């Protein structure tokens, strides 16, 4: 088992150099890197960043499993969003503040919608009740953009996951929240969320994630051809905003992978844009 994203601890373990310093690690990576000036895809990006050995150990198999597409056919940003560090920070992202809501996301959302002006209707497809809803001001749509337009330009492809949950009679079943299996098994990763939620309980649950082409839309697939199709839908969406005050916001409506913090920022920006528009009316 190796720490990931790749950091100094990973490099020491992988290259069996327990005393490797940051400067030596930089020189080592420099000797491993393939000289590709302008990486055009995820494979070239990773090869130019860490070289072939680390690419094959950590990225190639995982990416093939996760996307069902070779890294050379995926945009550089897919593998590029994972940091490589020359210090011993093993955390996934570089943000200064890394927190979850004190009482969890469910409680956070419950409080956000706890207002007599908000009516919540769950388990309904927007398309089925679209005609019944007469917005007084505007609509914010968070479903898939191609679905909104009845797939008239074709379907945007999505990657989905099948989750299997396994209960274990153990306080903890794995040493950390997430283990990626780059080169073994059909699942990409196992997640023991208890490491994050910090419940005290004699049992634990591990989720096994199996990537699928079919199922709920989870990840937009970042390829040029998909971006072109999305751009065409975006033109329709912009017209819909202008003519019918429908705002498209979020990962499904904008066909873009957002982390939670990014999508919250996106929602606030959309709100501010709308506020500005209506304040000037
Ligand atoms: C498997 C997975 C793991 C993730 N892990 C992380 C992580 O570890 N850290 C992190 O920061 N981010 C993670 N994310 C990303 C995070 O979940 C998203 O950024 C966030 O949920 C996006 O918010 P959203 O409002 O855009 O979309 P969503 O949360 O998907 O909300 C869209 C809403 O629209 C509703 N909707 C869609 N179509 C219709 C319709 N026709 N009628 C009515 N309602 C409809 C849906 O039911 C849903 O409630 C993960 C995402 C996935 C898929």
Describe the structure.
The protein is globular. It has a five-stranded antiparallel beta sheet with strand order 3-4-5-2-6. It has three domains: 8-80, no CATH class; 104-156 and 221-279, Rossmann fold; 158-212, no CATH class. A hairpin with an 8-residue loop joins strand 3 (178-180) and strand 4. 39% of the residues lie in helices and 12% in strands. The protein has helices spanning 8-14, 22-32, 42-50, 52-67, 76-80, 104-112, 126-129, 145-148, 194-197, 224-244, 260-279, and strands at 139-141, 158-168, 178-180, 189-191, 204-212, 219-220, 246-248. It contains eleven helices and seven strands. Bound molecules: flavin-adenine dinucleotide (FAD). Residues 125-127, 142-143, 147, 161, 218, 250-252, 258-260, 263 line the site of flavin-adenine dinucleotide.
State the major sheet.
5 strands, antiparallel
At CATH level 2, the architecture of the largest domain is 3-Layer(aba) Sandwich
Distance between the termini: 59 Å
Mean pLDDT: 95
Structural class: alpha+beta
The spatial strand order of the largest sheet comes to 3-4-5-2-6
């Amino acid at each position: 088992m190796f720490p990931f994203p790749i950091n100094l601890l990973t490099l020491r373990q992988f290259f069996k150099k327990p005393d490797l310093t940051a400067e030596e690690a930089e020189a080592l990576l420099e000797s491993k890197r393939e000289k590709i000036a302008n990486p055009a895809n995820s494979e070239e990006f990773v090869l130019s960043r860490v070289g072939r050995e680390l690419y094959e150990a950590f990225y190639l198999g995982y990416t093939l499993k996760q996307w069902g597409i070779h890294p050379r056919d995926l945009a550089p940003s897919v593998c590029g969003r994972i940091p490589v560090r020359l210090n011993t920070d093993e955390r996934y992202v570089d943000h200064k503040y890394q927190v979850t809501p004190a009482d969890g996301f469910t409680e956070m959302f419950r409080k956000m919608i706890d207002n007599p002006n908000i009516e919540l209707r769950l388990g309904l497809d927007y398309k089925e009740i679209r005609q019944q809803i007469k917005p007084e001001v505007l609509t914010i749509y968070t479903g898939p953009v191609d679905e909104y337009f009845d797939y008239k330009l074709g379907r945007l492809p999505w990657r989905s996951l099948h989750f299997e949950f396994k209960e274990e009679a153990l306080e903890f079943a794995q040493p950390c929240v997430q283990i990626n299996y780059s080169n073994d098994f059909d699942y990409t990763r196992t997640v023991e969320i208890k490491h994050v939620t910090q419940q005290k309980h004699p049992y634990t649950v591990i989720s096994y994630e199996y990537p699928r082409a079919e199922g709920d839309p989870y990840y937009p697939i970042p390829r040029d051809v998909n971006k072109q199709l999305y751009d065409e839908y975006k033109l329709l969406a912009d017209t819909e905003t202008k003519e019918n005050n429908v705002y498209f916001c979020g990962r499904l409506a904008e066909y873009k992978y957002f982390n939670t913090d990014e999508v919250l920022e996106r929602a606030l920006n959309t709100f501010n844009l709308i506020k500005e528009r209506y304040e000037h009316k």
